[in-house]
Each structure stands twice: as C-alpha cells, then as structure tokens.
Amino acid sequence: MTDILKELDIKLKTNGNFDEYKSEKQGDLLLELLYYKIKNYNHEESYDYLSQIFKIIPFCFFNISNQKLPNIISKVNSIHYSIKEQIELEKKQNIEVSSFLKDTVDNIEALTLALNYDYITEYHGNKYSLMEFLVFKLKNPVMIADAIKRFPYVVNLIDSNMKSIFSRIVESYIEAILDFSHVKNKSNDEVVYFDNILALFLTSKELYIDYEYEKEMIKNIECIIDNIDFTNDDINQEKLIFWLNSLKDTLEKKEPSNNFQLDDLLYKYDIPDTFSIVITKEVERISRRLPELLNKMEKNNNDEFIVTIDGDSAYEIDDGLSVRKSSNGNYILGVHIANPTALIKENNIIFEEAKKRTTSIYLSDRTIAMYPSYISKDLMSLQENQYNMALSFYIEINPSTSEVENIDIKEQKIFVNRNLTYDQVNDYLNGTKVTDYLLSSSIEELAIISEILNKKLNIEDFYRKLYRSASNKNNVLTKSQKIVELSMLITNYQIAKYMDFKGYPFIYRNHKVNEEQKLEIERLRELFQDEQDFANFEKHFKVLTSTYPRAQLNTTNEGHFGLGISHYSHVTSPLRREEDNLNHLAIREFIFNNPTDKRAYELETLLSKAANYTNKRRKPIEDFSINYELGKHLEKTKNKSKN
Q1: Residue 469: pLDDT above 80?
Q2: Is 367 helix (H, G, I), strand (E, B) or coil?
Q3: How far apart are CA 149 and CA 541, in angstroms?
Q4: What is the rounded distance in angstroms from the CA atom of residue 408 to the CA atom of residue 395?
Q5: How far is it, in rounded angstroms, from Cα 520 to Cα 528?
Q6: Phi-psi region for residue 503, left (φ > 0), alpha (ψ -120 to 50) or beta?
Q7: How far is CA 559 from the centre of its chain?
Q8: What is the mean pLDDT of the segment spanning 360-365?
Q9: Cα dist. 272→275, 359, 628 in Å?
Q10: Which of 116, 338, 535, 593 is most buried, by the most CB atoms less than 10 A from its CB?
Q11: From CA 502, how far away is CA 102, in angstroms rounded?
C-alpha cells in the first residue's frame, strides 16, 4: 500500500471524518483504499469504518466527465469482483461472511448502476435508495429489469424500518387501483406500471415473500372487494374488481398470472382481439362495391412496371415501387400505397374500429390486426397481376444533386406486375440471371435511386443503430431493404414537407430532443461506443431505447431529430397504421376535393384528436406485447421443465 493510502487509512480509522473527501481525486483514493483492503482482507479485523466511503462517493463523482467515467466504472467493477472472491473464500473456510462484506457488495452494485446510468445524485450510499428512485420516481421498467438482471437480490431489499421494496410495490399497486376507480376518465397508466413492476419482481427466482405479509395483503384485498358497491354501473368499478382479483391471484400463486392468460392481458390493456359480427357483415357489404369503384378510377400509366418488395411472411402488402427516367435525365420514383380510405369511408364502422385499434400488433405467434384480414390481405393488399386502388406519389430526383425537384400525387388504380421478396431482389442484384428485361431494369434503377437517396437522408447513426431490427445483428441493411426503407423515408418526408408548405392539416411524426437530452445521448454514446459486436450491444439495447426520446404524433410540425430531417409523417403503411389512413384522408380531401372551411376545421379536429389518442395508446400496446412475449417464454420454460 502506498504511503498516501496508509495515511488515509489511519486518518479515517482514527477520526472517521469523511467530510473533507469530496473531490474527484479524493474519490479515486477512497476507491483505491477500498480495493486494497478487500484484496488483503482479514476477517479478524473490523472494517466498519470503511462503509462510510459509500455515503461520500456521490459528492466525489457528482460532476464526473464522460471521458473519466469508464475508468471509474472499471475500478468499481474490480472492487465488486474482489469482494465476491473474498466472500467465496470465507465460505470455503467455513467462516461466517461479515456484515461489512455483505453491505459492501450491495453498495458496490448500487454504485455500478448509479454510475452507468448517471443517477449518482440519487445514490445515497445504499442499494435501497437507488432502487427506490428507479421504482417510485424514475418509473422506468426497462431500467428496473436491467437492475434485477444484473443484481438479482435487489428484489429483497429492505429499508431502515425493515419494510421491503416488494411490499411497497404491492401497496402502491393497490393505491393506484383505488385511485383509478375513484376518478372519472382517469388513465390506468399507474395501475399498468405497478402491474409490470410486480411481474418483474415475481419472475425473479431470488424473491422472498413473507408468508404473514402475503396473508395480510390478500385479506385486505378481499375486504376492499367485499365493500365495493356492485350496483354502480360504471366500467371503472368493473375494472377495479378485475384488477384487485388479478392482484390477489398473483399474490396467491406467487407468479405474474397475467403473463399466462391472454384474456387477462387483452382486458388489462384494452386490446380487441376479434372483430364483431357487425364488422364482418360490413366488410362483406363494402367488398361488393370494389369492382365498381375500380372501374370508375383513373388507370396509371401503362408504361410503369410496378413491383412490391416484402419479407417472406408479409401479412399485408401496402407499398409498391416503380421507376422511370424523365426527358431531363431525372429519375421519377413512383411510390404506390394501398388506398383503403377510397373504399372505407370516414365514419364507417370499420374506419371507427381502426381508429380505436390505432395499429396492427405483430407478436411471435399471432397478429392482432387493425383491419379484418379480408381487407388487409385480400381486398386492399397490392397483389400481383391485378388492379389495385392506390395513392401514388411520384418523386422527381436529380441524380447529380440528390435533390427532389418535384412531387406529384395521384389517386388511381395501379397494376402490380410482380410481388417480390427481399431475398429475390438481393439475388437479382448479386448476379442471378433475370430473363424479364423490365423486371431487371426496374430493380437496377431502384438500387441506383437508393444510393442517391442515401446521400440525401442523413439518419443519425445512434438512432439508426437503436431502432434497427433486433434480428439484423450486423446493423446493416441488405440492398433490397435499403431500396424499400429509403423509398418510404423520402416519401414520408416529402409529403409531410408538402402538406406543411401548403398549410393543410396533417399528422406529423415529431422527434424532439432538447439540449439536456442531447448531452445524455452523447453520454450513452461514449459509454457504449465500444460495444461493436451485437451480443454485447444487445445487453444495453432496451436500456438505451428507453432512455432515447420517443417520437410523438402532432398536427404541428417540429422536425425529426433522429432522421435528421425537417419534416416527417406516416403515409406508407395504411393497412397496419391508422395515422397513415388519416393522412390519406387529409391528402384526398385537401388536394383533390377542395373542402369548405367547415369541412377543413372538422378534419383538423379529427386529426388532432386521433394523434393524441394514438400517442396514449402506444404505451399500453407496447406493454401488452412485452407481457405477452414474456408469458409465452415462461410458458415454454415451464413445459420444458415438466418434460
């Protein structure tokens, strides 16, 4: 041990005054001293005075720079490893592990989390204070899940009054249920949040639930249910009974029952799984009108060769592409989008149902569709060798400057020449012989356009990495995926820009990031920049995506930071996203129909309400998807263990 550390050790042991050790340099010394003492641990000595180090650490590293952070985390990790080694050694020698070593493990683990995620100001020398912050203040399930995964025993933490963090979660859950039932039109977000957190704790194998506490909670819940006035015809009263019974079942079974019961999940998150007989009959009725509407609709240019490019298991096909060269040498990219609003009128029961659902939900073994499958897969899907109803966006691109020089929008019927898969297009681009000249030339020119667009669309690297499909382990798009992604991006960008310039009501997808958030993004980028291989990056993926600001829908344009563009919208996926349908409605009304002021106001109100509603529905839909997949995983695990 160096003379400086010896002097520090003597000083701390004799007077126990830590108040003067509050600089970053002194924080380094305190960590070095702790590391040395653990490496040379003697169970016959008392180290209790060193526990005070953790109370002063937050002051030492309050303003630590991003550059120095990895070095500090490395030191903390070394201490953590050394403590675990020492604990194992004590156990092997049949020596009772000291409270100092146990407490130090807790403190070091909490310090690791606090430093990693920049919550050092919320760390007060123990793990409980940090978990309390994560659960009851930050309320970020992803962060909590990460903490449990890293340090499983956090589920059993207790405060100075011997109250467990688990019991506080249960009590807060009951409070949230009661609060929800007593306030009219109140969101159930708080109830859903504590339901998710309870599930996280219950999935931990390390969780200990006190038997007496469990009996008391179940008795309290039954007492509340017995005193509910069932004569009150109120949906919130119904949900109150459901949530309380669900919580009671969960505590009795000691497992998150919602993860195994699809009906429970659907009810909790207000997810409609089937379509009513009324919707089914209405689909039959409007389908009979399709031939007549197609006959009346203008036909697209016969010279266009239109292809669709999708995955092998695409549920619906809602976008097609064509390309041609104009006389001035520019490319005309045709982006042809299925047009359900031409068939399904506003205020139709099917239209209203899609508004409620907001989106299709894609799960590992099922799809909960926004439209009945006969509409999304058959009537309106862009199938090859037939005419389809479409909104076509013709984007004129200068190959020299990569600039869009003109945009033309048409409502028409199109003839789709080929339905292709990503793999087929990649094969063609990589040398597989194509006998159809129109097909081969179309694919080659679409590939050229994608390279041109790639220069124009400057997607922020970190955003691209975070939101790339988890299955794409190399974070690299194939040639065919680039063609589709960039064609859709340029369309959503240009249409948003066009509608904003015209002053027409429209739903924009805004991604706002303030200066403080930009600094946090930069901090995360620095922290995880070395995680190049996907396996390591995946460990941090959920934490990073939960921290990165989310895009929001709004009828006022505010730009899209992640994509690096001034405008963005959704118009290219109307068979699976309702905001695209509503934007189609705005395009059709304002560009083709010249609405009255009254009609324009009605549409603006409709779009604004729908945008707000869709924003609110996104979190419950995400929670439903996460809990469904978790339930399926646990179900498989159980079945395997039985066999």
Answers
A1: no
A2: strand
A3: 14
A4: 7
A5: 12
A6: left
A7: 20
A8: 91
A9: 8, 11, 14
A10: 338
A11: 66
Structure tokens at 84: 């675990």
Nearest to 337 by CA among 300, 371, 295, 292: 300
Long-range CB contact pairs, 183-191, < 8 A, 24+? 184/236, 186/236, 187/616, 188/239, 189/619, 189/620, 191/243
Pairing of the two strands 306-310 and 404-421? parallel
For residue 412, give both structure tokens: 């028409």
Helices of type H across 419-460: 422-429, 437-456
Contact 446, 321 (CB under 8 A): yes
Answer yes or no: are the C-beta atoms of 12 and 52 closer than 8 Å: yes
Listed as own residue / partner, the contacts of 494-499 with beta carbons closer than 8 Å and 24 or more positions apart are 494/393, 494/395, 494/404, 494/407, 495/393, 495/407, 495/409, 495/569, 495/571, 495/583, 495/587, 496/557, 496/567, 496/568, 496/569, 497/566, 497/567, 498/407, 499/569, 499/583, 499/586, 499/587, 499/590
Q: Give 31-84 pLDDT, tens digit per residue.
A: 888 998 898 888 888 888 888 788 778 788 877 776 777 788 888 888 988 998
Nearest one of 311, 326, 322 to 416, comparing CA atoms: 322
Does residue 23 surpass a pLDDT of 90?
Answer: no
Per-residue pLDDT tens digits for 510-539: 998 887 777 766 766 666 655 554 455 555
Positive or negative: CA dihedral 465, 467, 471, 477: negative
For residue 548, give the DSSP letter.
S
Angle of helix 99-116 relative to helix 53-60, nearest 10 degrees, comes to 10
Q: Which two tokens stand for residue 197?
A: 């957190």
Q: Using DSSP, state whether 87 is helix, strand or coil.
A: helix
- For residues 436 and 439, give the distance between their C-alpha atoms in angstroms, rounded to a whole number: 5
Residue 471 confidence class, pLDDT cut points 50, 70, 90: very low
Q: What angle separates helix 349-357 from helix 277-287, to the nearest 10 degrees?
A: 120
Q: Give the three-class secondary structure for 525.
A: helix
Are the C-beta atoms of residues 428 and 443 closer than 8 Å to each other? yes
Alpha-carbon radius of gyration of the chain = 30
**Residue 64 to residue 69: CA distance in whole angstroms:** 7
Rounded Cα distance between 580 and 316, Å, is 15
What count of Cα atoms within 13 Å lies in the side-chain half-sphere of residue 505? 23
CA-to-CA dists, residue 495 to 100, 108, 535, 566, angstroms: 64, 52, 38, 12
Q: Which amino acid is at 412?
A: Q
> What are the two backbone dihedrals, phi and then psi, of residue 463, each rounded to the nearest 5 degrees?
-65, -45
